[in-house]
Amino acid sequence: MFVNVVVGSDGLEGGRDALALAEQLGAPRAAVVIAPGDHSVGRGLRRFAEIERADLIVIGSCQHGVFERATYRRRVLGTLHGAQCAVAIAPAGYAGRGGRVRLIGVGYDGSRESEHGLLVARDLGAATARR
Fold first, then answer.
1. Is the dihedral of CA 62, 93, 24, 9 positive or negative?
2. Which residue in 59, 2, 49 sits closest to 25, CA to CA?
3. Which domains are seen in the chain, by residue range?
4. Is 83 in a helix, a strand, or coil?
5. β-pair partners for 58
6. Which residues, at least 6 apart from 38, have a Cβ–Cβ distance to it below 8 Å?
7. Which tens digits make up the pLDDT trace of 25-83?
8. Best exposed site among 15, 25, 61, 119 by fewest CB in 10 Å?
């Protein structure tokens, strides 16, 4: 489980879902911190995660209109590009469903980092299945 978790919140409905997922994926007594805003949310989250020495960034999904989905897409891509730690995306409505992880996706390109991602996903799957 993760011990230093940064949650991205930009006022969208997904913030509540992101916080619920962060609390579930965090280790007992994990430091869960909500990142302050930045004009580039992705860059701001990455920078804040580096300062906090986060091992996980959690962002919420968008369930609103076209403009919000476009903003969300930029936020996700901006966060993923160059992130030095794991990034989790909370599905829309996650907080209201009792907070159960049902699916873990891992980007895999054969690199050492993606191999590590597979190991972390396997461990997370085993840990969340026991809850």
1. positive
2. 2
3. 2-100 (3.40.50.960), 101-131 (no CATH)
4. coil
5. 7, 88
6. 44, 45, 47, 48
7. 888 888 887 776 655 667 777 888 888 899 888 887 765 666 666 666 666 776 777 78
8. 119
